[in-house]
Every structure is written in C-alpha cells, then in structure tokens.
Design goal:
alpha/beta, nine-stranded mixed β-sheet
Length: 209
C-alpha cells in the first residue's frame, strides 16, 4: 500500500493554503481543492516528505520542526493520471509563518504543472461555508478539528472526481479571526516564528491535452 502525507498549511493569521487541482489524464472532470502533499519516497518519514512536497508544489520551504504531529490517519482509494491507488496517509498541521505561497516551484513534475491550476489562502469560515469539492471530502469539517489540535475520526474515503459543469473560482482572501491565530500558534511552542522563504515561480504549465 502506498504511504503518503498531507499538510494543512497554516500561516501566521490562521489562513489555510489549498491547491486548485485537476487530474491531467481526465481533463473533462471538474477541478477540486486539496491539501499539498504526496507519497513518501524510500527512506523518508512524513515530516521529511512534507518539506519536500511543499517546496515542489508551492515553492514554500519550511523545516521539519514546522510539521506538527499526525492528527488524521486515513486510507483512501482514488485514481490519478491513469493509475488506481490504495493509499494510507497521515495529515499534519504545518505552520509557515508570515509568508505567502508563490505561483509554484520549478521543481514540479510535468504532471504537477498540468494538475495544479492555482492556489488560495482560505479563512476557516470561508472553507466551512464553501460548496466546492475538496480532497479529502470532509476537509471543511475536519480542518477546524485539526487546528484545535484534536484527532480527526474519518478513517476511509473512496474518492472520485466528477463532472458537474461548474468550476470553482478563487475568491478574495480576508483575515482570519484572532481566535484562529491563537489556535494555530498553540500547536507550536514558538508561535510559528520559524524561518522560511518562497522560491521564484517556475515555468508555465505544459499542455497535455
């Protein structure tokens, strides 16, 4: 079974970073919002994999001490780029300080350039109220639980994209409530002051049809 990790990336104001994604092998399906992350490479643990995946997918660089403990353990079945996956993954809060994500990283794979259509910083209120599709599907309900430092009880998902004829549109980002800032900072001893930097954006996406 494939082992993976995903990051609930939180900035110093309590906003959550999500990727607007599609399956490049099925361009007719609707995009969805998902957490950064991916499969563990040989010899990696989850924090190391998330540091690498964040740099590749978003251009954000953090150290492993910014990665919190696993708060959600789950298995999922899904298809991606023509392959079926049965995946066991852990989900972690990652605090990235004051910086914002860039437009991507030159280290993305070709598939990632064609899959990631954009990214957005979400307030918790906007996420909970959204009618868009997410991966994991219960993310709007589960993100506040993770921000509070509690375990999520949602162990399995069989996930498929769909064609609904509506594309989610990025919305303006507003500041999160002070309460959310206190919750996210409470997950880390130093209040999220760890050093990080944003890489320059990479090349434009390639068109795979």
């Amino acid at each position: 079974m494939r082992q993976a990790a995903r990051a609930l990336v939180v900035d110093a104001t309590g906003r959550i970073l999500l990727l607007w994604t599609r399956d490049p092998a099925r361009p007719g399906t609707d995009p969805w919002w998902e957490m950064p992350g991916g499969g563990l490479e040989p010899g990696e643990d989850a924090p190391t994999a998330l540091v690498r995946e964040l740099a590749e997918e978003t251009g954000i660089e953090v150290s492993t001490d910014r990665v919190g403990p696993p708060l959600w353990h789950r298995e999922t079945h899904f298809s991606w780029c023509g392959r079926d996956y049965h995946q066991r993954e852990t989900l972690h809060v990652v605090l990235c300080g004051e910086a914002s994500a860039g437009e991507g990283s030159h280290r993305r794979t070709v598939a990632e350039w064609n899959a990631i259509l954009g990214m957005r910083w979400w307030t918790v209120d906007d996420l909970v109220a959204s009618g868009d599709r997410f991966f994991p599907g219960s993310l709007p309900a589960s993100a506040p639980v993770m921000l509070a430092g509690r375990l999520v009880d949602d162990p399995y998902e069989n996930w498929e994209p769909f064609t609904g004829g509506r594309l989610p549109e990025p919305m303006p980002v507003s500041e999160s409530p002070n309460a959310v800032r206190r919750i996210s900072r409470a997950l880390f001893a130093d209040g999220g002051s760890g050093a990080m930097r944003v890489q320059d954006p990479g090349p434009p996406p390639l068109d795979m049809g």
